[in-house]
Amino acid sequence: MRLRWWNANYVGTHYGGSLYSMADPFFMVMLIENLGKDYIVWDKAATIRFKKPGRGKMSAGFRLSESRSKKSGRLCILSRRSSAWSR
Fold it and tell me: What whole-number distance in Å separates Cα of residue 65 and Cα of residue 62?
């Protein structure tokens, strides 16, 4: 995401909400794709930790290991609820 007037904050760096919006849906979509149609995935909560002010073009990378995906599926089965994501 490039820094533009519409996503800059008062001090001229990327507005945190824009960065968050850019990154928010990816883990939910990745879990949906990895777990398959037998699971309903909802994005209930998330956090973001900014390392430093964002200037210029920003990018993000996302990784979801197969073991993490399978663990989430097993936790859903064991707990019989959808909030099975754990750290």
Answer: 10
